[in-house]
Design brief:
Elements: E1 2-7, H1 11-21, E2 28-33, H2 36-44, E3 51-54, H3 63-73, E4 79-83, H4 88-97, E5 101-104, H5 109-120, H6 142-146, H7 150-160, H8 165-172, H9 176-190, H10 195-204
Parallel strand pairs: 1-2, 1-3, 3-4, 4-5
Length: 209
Amino acid sequence: MTRILIVEDHALVREAMAHTLARLAPGVECVGVSGADQALVLLEAGADWDLAVVDLMLPDVNGFSLLEVLAGRYPDLPALVVSALDDSVSVRRAMKAGASGFVSKSSSSEELCRAVRIVLDGGVCSPERVVLSPSPRTDPSLGERFGLTAGQLRVLELLGQGKTNRQIADLLGLSEGTVKVHVSAIFRALNVKNRAQAVLVISRHGGRI
């Protein structure tokens, strides 16, 4: 039997993933919980689990923190992230925190099943567009050049993708007011007055944030 723990706060998404993954093979059992606390309670109960499927935007503890806890307490349990927060910075951060794979929520059920099979087989699966180990470069990143914080860099990357403040807030699990504070700080650091000028700075820097 293969036991998969799904940590996803949206019931419809959780149930859809469980239904999809149950078709992987006979004997696959999926158990869904809505948050990190519930997931840890189940894991601490001592049952055998083969895979944890984790969303990054959870109501209690964010998914990045949960990944770090899982990696520390349950190093033999692989984790696959399935999230709408699929920008390259978030993917790299999730993999660094201990995830064995990453699937965007915009992916198909076939892509999800493929990623689960790879991770269950001991492999690593990440979006093809994300280079997890970039070649060394001598020129500084935007963050290094302008002294941006990690939070500001994540906002800047989404801003560069054309996301609105509301969309950025939803993706990062922040309030819209906090996003506005980050955007204002970014404009000051880049010495620009608006989003178009910020995107131009990103473009001139080769898109390397």
